[in-house]
Amino acid sequence: MAWSVDMGIDLGTATVLVFLQGKGIVLNEPSVVAIDQRERRVMAVGTSAQDMLGRTPGNIVAIRPLQDGVIADFDVTEAMLKHFIYKVGNRRRLSRPRVVVCIPAATTSVEKKAVIEAVSRTGAREVYLVEEPRAAALGAGLEIFEPSGSMVVDIGGGTTDIAVLSMGEVVISCSVRLGGDRFDEAISRYVKKKFNLFIGERSAERLKVEVGSALPGGRSLSMEVRGRNTVDGLPRSLEISTEQIADALVEPVYSIVQGVRRVLEQTPPELSGDIVNKGIILTGGGALLHGLSKVIADETGVPTYMAEDPVGSVALGTGLVLENLDRLTGTLITSKRLAAAM
After folding, report:
1. Most buried one in 48, 114, 193, 246, CB count within 10 A?
2. Are 84 and 16 in contact (CB under 8 A)?
3. CB atoms < 10 A from the CB of 224, how many?
4. How far apart are CA 174 and CA 280, in angstroms?
5. Strands 160-166 and 197-198, sheet pairing
6. CA dist., res. 123 & res. 336, Å (int)
7. pLDDT at 86 (0 to 100)
8. What number is the average pLDDT over the span 52-65?
9. In what order do the strands lie in the sheet with 7-11?
């Protein structure tokens, strides 16, 4: 039997979350697709595809179809979306749902069009795009419809969206094209340069999560990591400390802080006062980096807090957009509005 239920999709560089009305977040899986290059056939999607990263034969490649928050491979993105939508539909046929999809604040018209087309081709009846910081602010519980300034910093896998909102809309925003993935890359690069040890992205992520910190001296932990010696090519293990990870992350953390400062400098004085009173709210998986909220607070002089559910905030926000479609329709991006603007 066909059925219809509206859904929200947090289409992230690193992770896809799907929100179903009446059920909440029903899917949280990596944005990874494993493909057989010989047959151009999808072998696995999501968690099962991520498990293949770095462990596949030459003909099978595990790829991320989104880069820096935008579609890099249209066909693979479409296949991934179809898989996830089919999966959350309990393998029953969805009857053309309305879908709200989040996009980075600085997405171009061409990139927006690609997202709408990819989602439409999965069978959606209507597709609405909403800026990630607006969805994140809603999902974090901020009262963005009031005539008062709220500030959110959403740190995803590929992008960091920073925005000041008031009366339900984005007043000032900035999109920094780096996020949690860049943290991992910085750790890998640091370990390779300093210790001649080549480690995989999964190992770099584990270091970030288990012993990492944005704040030098924030905590004192260490972890053994295994990799390949770049000098003799042999396997080797090494103990890496929190202090070393903090050193590795200086550059990407500084870029995010600079983005926050730029937005604060452009914010109207009345709204600035509201932000100082309420503080800056951090959302997204990258917000979980130990010590990051303190670094931002110290560098800007504005209190900074992590959302109650930083990872789920954007997806939860799409659910609130669905609930308030009548109120928000005029400010959401649709294919008709894009065609008129282009």
Report:
1. 246
2. yes
3. 8
4. 14
5. unpaired
6. 17
7. 84
8. 78
9. 24-30, 15-20, 7-11, 98-103, 126-131
Phi, psi of 117 (to 5 degrees): -65, -45
Beta-carbon contacts of 217 under 8 Å, excluding residues fewer than 6 positions away, are 243, 246
Indicate whether this model's pTM tops 0.70. yes
- Which of 31-40, 88-97, 151-160 has the lowest average pLDDT? 88-97
User: Topology of domain 180-250, per CATH?
Assistant: Actin; Chain A, domain 4 (3.90.640)
How far is 228 from 77, CA to CA, in rounded Å?
A: 32
DSSP state of 40: T
Q: For residues 62 and 292, what is the distance between their CA atoms, to the nearest angstrom?
A: 30
- CATH 3.90.640.10 maps onto the chain at 180-250
Name, in order, each residue with C-beta under 8 angstroms of 186's C-beta and a sequence gap of 6 or more: 248, 249, 251, 252
Q: Which CATH number fits domain 7-32+68-134+315-341: 3.30.420.40, 3.40.190.10, 3.30.70.330, 3.10.20.30?
A: 3.30.420.40
Do the Cβ atoms of 314 and 155 come closer than 8 Å? no
Distance of alpha carbon 34 from alpha carbon 36, whole angstroms: 7
* Class of CATH domain 140-178+258-310: alpha beta
Q: What's the maximum distance between 2 C-alpha atoms anywhere in the chain?
A: 63
| Residue owning tokens 């690193």 | 14
